[in-house]
Amino acid sequence: MVTRILTTLLLGCACATGSAPALPAQPAAPALDLTVRHTDGTDGAKAYRIAATGMAAAPRAVAWRILTDYDHLAEVVPNLKSSRVLARDGDKVIVEQVGAAHFLFFSRDIRLVVLVHEQAPDKIDVSLI
User: Fold this and answer.
1) Could you tell me if residue 93 is inside a domain?
2) For the whole model, what pTM was predicted?
3) Residue 19, SS3 per DSSP
4) Which of 10, 53, 106, 116 has the fewest CB atoms found within 10 Å of its own CB?
């Protein structure tokens, strides 16, 4: 369940383009390569490494601006109710996000606090804290 929720949130972040300027229609949806791998956490707990890469028909600067505008991600990421920056130190940002997980007619809010390491212009590492 945690894997599915994290995957949904990360997929939403990777595909967010709501604030981008209008671009010509593309014949096919952008491809997204997603891998989920179980690893052992440092304290023996279950841990997952989720990697998402993909292409979008948008200038790199526009994609970067949207993906790193954490306070407005809920406007472009499905099932993300809120996202706000708690602290920033250079290229490291602590972000609190609240999303909704849905299954049939059940719904549950999920609160995450993550450490984001921005590696401009093309890599964002996100870790739960």
Assistant:
1) yes
2) 0.68
3) coil
4) 106
Q: Nearest to residue 56, comparing CAs of 26, 77, 78?
A: 26
Q: Tokens 């804290």 label which residue?
A: 129
Query: What is the residue range of 103's domain?
Result: 2-19+32-128
Residue 115 lies in a domain: yes
Contact criterion met (CB below 8 Å) for 95 and 84: yes
Q: What is the pLDDT of residue 28?
A: 57
Q: Is residue 24 part of a domain?
A: no
Task: Give the pLDDT score at 54.
Answer: 81
Q: 99, 96, 100: which is closest to 126 by C-alpha?
A: 96
Give the count of domains, the chain. 1
pLDDT of residue 46: 78
Cβ 69 vs Cβ 94: under 8 Å? no
